[in-house]
Amino acid sequence: MNLSDMLSYADIGQLSKIAGAYRCECNGNSKNELIQSILSQVNRHDVFENQISSMKLEDLRFLNSLLFESRQSYSLEDLVARVQQSRFGEEKKEAADEPVKKPKKSKKKAALPPSPREIIVQFKHQGWLFNGFSGPGRYLFQIPSDLKTRFRETLRRRFAEQLQYTDEPHMYRDEQGLIQEDIKQLLHYVYHNEVQLITDGSMYKRSLQQMLDRMGVREELPSKGAWRFGYGRHFNHYPDRFSLLYDYCCSAKYISEQPDGWLVVEDAGKERLEKPAEADEQELVYRYWLKLYKGPVANLLSLVHWIHALAPDWVSVASLREVLVPFIKTYYYDDANAILEARVLKMMVHLGLLRIGEHPEHGTVVRMTKAGNAVIDRMARGKDSAGLALH
């Protein structure tokens, strides 16, 4: 539903609070006047821009977590968890950085940040969140659809103003189609060779190296004895791209790790070997990547959509970093910069969603591919052909 629809269902108490937030001058006893006055204020470009500009970073992160999902409603518990996740522990860090001072006797207590429930109430008073109006849905919250669109467009303009767009670099890398070809290469090798597994389920290095030599994108084996951190089934043994391919093939039941210690191609994998890749295979791998990586990178979906919105032309990674890193939470040994560049941008290149190049003046630059635009646009329209739950 749009804002006007939700306002019509709201009671006069909530309407009065929303009207107060926007400083509406109208008859507070008339529901119709309240609705018309609120809509008039919200539809003003300057008022909406000021509302966004005055938001704290934590509130922007919370809002960002709601903007790109296809789901329509959220429980109170879900919203509380999202508010908590949006804080990134800044308060603790600031406290730790402050020098130790002798305590002073004072009757005034230090101001505490608003609780998650207070933030949710604040969003309700601004007309950005509404409760359901009847049945079980009355305990769920929704964002008006037209406000979602306006939030995305307003933030896109603000972010784009901070970016450095460039002309096309002399050389760039484009991996469109390679991941589909390498799925077939992996299956072909396993089908025609006996691939034995170590007790931890990973392949022996000889087999792994032979597979990597067949891939369209060169990756090095993790160094012997080197400490490694990553995501996926055997991340400590396999390089990132191959690890994703391997996990996808296991998930699609193309291959399986047998109890007797052998890797085999299943019937679905044999069928995939005998015919060209399906037209939507790139999208299936992309959606699997979202599912696999969304645990470590909680707002991965929104990051992908922002890159899609902000990189229709060549843009410097350095300026993208300035815009997007504040929205990325560290994950164990991955800091926000590493997550953006190694876990998001690099993997989007491998998935054929991004091109990457080196600009003589602005350094590393990226741009969405035609296939990448098509995949993400289809997802934005809610066509979940993979049937994966991404929430």
Strand content: 5-15%
Low-confidence stretches: 91-98, 383-391
Find the count of extended strands (DSSP E, 2+ residues): 10
**Main sheet, how many strands, which sense, barrel?**
4 strands, antiparallel
What's the N-to-C terminus distance? 20 Å
> Given the C-alpha coordinates, what overall shape results?
elongated
Topology:
Layout: H1 3-9, H2 12-21, H3 31-42, H4 45-53, H5 57-64, E1 74-75, H6 76-85, H7 90-97, H8 116-125, E2 130-131, E3 140-142, H9 145-161, E4 172-174, H10 178-192, E5 195-196, H11 205-214, H12 240-251, E6 255-257, E7 262-265, H13 267-274, H14 281-293, H15 300-310, E8 315-316, H16 317-324, H17 336-350, E9 354-359, E10 363-368, H18 370-380
Antiparallel strand pairs: 1-3, 2-3, 4-9, 5-7, 6-7, 8-10, 9-10
Outline of this structure?
With 391 residues, the chain is an alpha+beta fold. It has 18 helices and 10 strands. The strands form 3 sheets. The protein has a 4-stranded antiparallel beta sheet. Strands 1-3-2 form a 3-stranded antiparallel beta sheet. The chain has a 3-stranded antiparallel beta sheet with strand order 5-7-6.
What does this protein look like?
By secondary structure, the chain is α+β, with helices and mostly antiparallel strands. The chain contains 18 helices and 10 strands. The strands form 3 sheets. It has a 4-stranded antiparallel sheet with strand order 4-9-10-8. It has a 3-stranded antiparallel sheet with strand order 1-3-2. α2 runs parallel beside α3, α6 packs across α8 and α10 crosses α13. The longest helix has 17 residues.
